[in-house]
Amino acid sequence: MQRATMPIRLRIGALGALPLLVAGMSVGPVLATPAHAAYGPCNTTSWRDVPTLGGKNDYKIPARSGNGISCYMGYREGSSSAVEALQQAITICYPGTWAARKIHNSGGTDGTYGNGTVEAVRWLQINKLDLAGSADGVYGPQTRAKMRWPHYYDRGALLNSCTNPSTL
Question: What residues are paired with 47 via a beta bridge?
Answer without folding.
Answer: 60
